[in-house]
Amino acid sequence: MDKDEEQRRSAPIAGRDIPAPRLARVILTAALLSYLAITTLNILAAELSGPTLAVGLLSLAAIFLIQLRHSQAGANRAPLHRRCTTLGIQALLTYLPIVVFRAEWGAMAGFLAGSLLLLLPSRVAWVMFGAVGLSMLLPPALDGRSALDSVYLCQSTLLTGLVVYGLSRLADLVSVLHETRDQLTRMAVTKERLRFARDLHDLLGYSLSAITLKSELIHRLVPTHPQRAMEEVHDVLAISRQSLADVRMVASGLLSMSLADELASAQSLLDAAGLEVRADIRLGEMSQQVDTVLAAVLREAVTNLLRHSKASRCEISAVREDGRVRLSVANDGADPTYRDPSTHIGSGSGLGNLMMRLNVVSGELTTTRGPDGSFLLLAEAPAAPSRHPPDTEDDVVSSQKPAA
């Protein structure tokens, strides 16, 4: 098993280890409620009067609701004036009760410190975060407590702020990760649909054109040359069986083609169509990927020639020189206004498919139409492309919608 296959098989397992966005939000809320409960217990232990206790509990509830708002995904993208307003309210609810509750209210300063990191630009946020932590040195000193208590409250405030900030950001990242995974899944499905449509177009367009052409030839030969007609029938059956095998390969994703085989098939088909064919074939070693791509180019070129031209002569050249393979198909009957009645006008996507295929193997495709009605299709690619060629197919997927 190669490394890529191992990664593909392990990906679903890794995906199951990612917590759900709802669970991440529950963990964040539980942590905030825990800090809130600690402060509530501290206030209750102070044995304050009823009205003072009620004001403290209401202030705690208000801070909790504000903190939930600040910890929401995208809260830092709200208008600046709105962020400053809610932070100002939270600061008042944090510092004013300290006059009454002193050090017992200190945990709420951690919420404010975390909110500053969540809502403000980094440079300003970290400075204010430190200032909030240092401000918590005062409440224990005002109560006449030791310096150790002041350091403890300062440290716990900063730690609470980091916990609030970290859990809020983590919940956001979990949500983004799940959304990204869903998008990647949809893109993978779209990419597979495009691959299937592209391969089906490249394969069946050629095969159906060949079957149609040979069937017309058989119809003409039956009255006068029955033996030749029988030979053509055998060819049609062979093409049909090969088309069925090709469709199965496309469905399984195991498509591979041979340029040499396609050259021989193209010559036979063009001869049957009554075209004068000249071929210059000097092929050498090439990678299977390049072989398949250039075979698909040849199929599409011959299919377009039969469908969209009135050519009488065709020249095919396939040469390997200096580590590159060059395939050219030229004919003398290009007619931009001509369309075979068996095809839907404007329905073809062959050249786009071929350009995408050649880009994957670092190749190039050019077409030239001459004023005399000639047409030249030229494809060139390295015989052995780089191990990791540029993947332009992802760009095509992201810009197209899946077929209905």
UniProtKB/TrEMBL annotation:
Transmembrane segment boundaries: 26-45, 51-68, 107-138
Residues covered by the Signal transduction histidine kinase subgroup 3 dimerisation and phosphoacceptor domain: 192-255
Name of the protein this chain belongs to: Histidine kinase
InterPro entries reported for this sequence: HATPase_C_sf (IPR036890), Sensor_HK_TwoCompSys (IPR050482), Sig_transdc_His_kin_sub3_dim/P (IPR011712)
Keyword 4Fe-4S carried by entry: no
Pfam families xref list: HisKA_3
Start and end residues of each stretch annotated as Disordered: 381-404
Keywords from the named record: Kinase, Membrane, Transferase, Transmembrane, Transmembrane helix, Two-component regulatory system
Signal peptide (from-to): none
Source organism of the structure: Streptomyces durocortorensis
Domain of life: Bacteria
GO molecular function: kinase activity
